[in-house]
Write a structure and sequence with these properties.
- There is one protein chain.
- The protein is built from 15 helices and 2 strands.
- α2 packs across α3, α2 packs antiparallel against α8 and α5 packs across α6.
- It is mostly helical.
- Helices cover about 55% and strands about 0% of the residues.
- The N and C termini lie far apart (about 45 Å).
C-alpha cells in the first residue's frame, strides 16, 4: 500500500460523512464521557488492545472505581493490578499500566500529561497509545492507527481488503494525509474512523450498505477484490502456552495467600509446558517465586 493511493479519495470528501455518521451512531462508552478524563481514556486504551469492548466494560468500571487516579494505582502493589485485570488476557498490560501510573505520579504530579512526547516517554506506552490519549483525552491532532482504522483506510483509500500484518510507514503517511487540519475535527475523525471499523467496516461481513463513504470506497468501487497479501494471522488459544499461563494466573488471582506448587500443577497435565508457562510468568514479572517454593502475585 502506498500513500499516493489517497489521491483517489480526496480527504475532505471523507471527513464530513464519516464524522456525521459518528455523531449519529457512536456507542455511549464510559471512556468517551467528559467525566472519564485523561486517566479514564488511558485505562481504556490499555484494556482495549486485542480485547473486545464487551469484555472490557465491567473490568474498566471496577478499575476506575478502585483507582480513580493514577496515584491510587501507583500506591498499590503491581500484583493487585494483575489481580484486578481478571480474564482480560495479555496481563502484562496490567503491569505496564501500573508502571505508567507510577511514572505519572512521580513525574507529572499525578496528572496524565497532555504532550505527545511526554506520553510516549511513559513506560508501557507506544506510538498508538500516546496518539490515542493525546487525541481522545486532549483533542489534539494525531494519526491514531489501530486495527479498525487501518482496515478502513486500507479499503476506502488503498482499495485493498486488509492492511498489512504490521503497520507500515506508508500507512502512517497515508493516515497523516487524511487528517483534518483543525485539532478538534482531527480528534473527532480519529474516533469516527475507529468506530466505523468496529461497527460497519468489520474484518468479516462488512456492511457496506450502512457505510457513509461506500460511494467513495476504493475497494468497493474495484469490486471488493480478495486479499492478495500474506495470510492473515489467526489467533489460536486452546492448548497454547497462553492458555496455560491464564490458568496459572487464575489460581494466583483467586488466592489470598501464596500458592504451593501442587496447586499450580493441578491446572495443567503436561509438566514441560506447565513449567515453561510458569517460568515465562516469572520472567515477565507477573508471578513472584518465594524461597519456600511458593508463588504469589508481585508486591513490588
Amino acid at each position: 500500500m502506498t500513500a499516493t493511493t489517497s489521491t483517489h479519495t480526496p480527504p475532505a470528501s471523507l471527513h464530513t460523512p464519516v464524522i456525521g455518521w459518528f455523531e449519529q451512531h457512536a456507542r455511549d462508552l464510559p471512556w468517551r464521557r467528559p467525566e472519564a478524563g485523561a486517566w479514564g481514556v488511558m485505562v481504556s486504551e490499555f484494556m482495549l488492545q486485542q480485547t473486545p469492548v464487551s469484555r472490557v466494560l465491567p473490568v474498566y468500571e471496577q478499575w476506575l472505581a478502585r483507582w480513580p487516579r493514577p496515584a491510587d494505582l501507583a500506591a498499590d502493589a503491581p500484583g493487585e493490578a494483575v489481580r484486578a485485570w481478571g480474564r482480560l488476557g495479555y496481563p502484562r498490560r496490567a503491569l505496564r499500566l501500573h508502571g505508567a501510573a507510577q511514572a505519572i505520579t512521580e513525574r507529572h504530579g499525578g496528572d496524565v500529561p497532555s504532550e505527545h512526547n511526554q506520553l510516549l516517554a511513559l513506560p508501557g506506552i507506544g506510538e498508538y497509545t500516546a496518539a490515542a490519549v493525546a487525541s481522545f483525552a486532549y483533542g489534539q491532532r494525531h494519526a491514531v492507527l489501530d486495527t479498525n482504522v487501518r482496515r478502513v483506510f486500507a479499503r476506502a483509500a488503498a482499495g485493498i481488503q486488509y492492511p498489512p500484518n504490521a503497520t507500515t510507514a506508508a500507512e502512517r503517511k497515508l493516515a497523516r494525509a487524511l487528517l483534518p487540519e483543525e485539532d478538534e475535527r482531527a480528534a473527532r475523525w480519529a474516533a469516527a474512523t475507529m468506530e466505523l471499523g468496529a461497527l460497519v467496516c468489520t474484518a468479516k461481513n462488512e456492511d457496506c450498505s450502512r457505510c457513509p463513504i461506500s460511494g467513495q470506497c476504493a475497494w468497493l468501487l474495484a469490486g471488493k477484490p480478495a486479499h492478495q497479501g500474506p495470510p492473515r494471522r489467526g489467533q489460536t488459544y486452546a492448548g497454547t502456552d497462553r492458555q496455560v499461563r491464564g490458568r496459572l494466573l487464575a489460581v494466583l488471582r483467586e488466592a489470598v495467600a501464596p500458592v504451593g506448587q501442587s496447586a499450580l500443577d493441578a491446572v495443567w497435565d503436561e509438566p514441560v509446558q506447565r513449567a515453561r508457562a510458569l517460568d515465562g510468568l516469572v520472567a515477565d514479572g507477573l508471578v513472584e517465586p518465594l524461597p519456600d517454593g511458593q508463588y504469589r502475585l508481585p508486591l513490588t
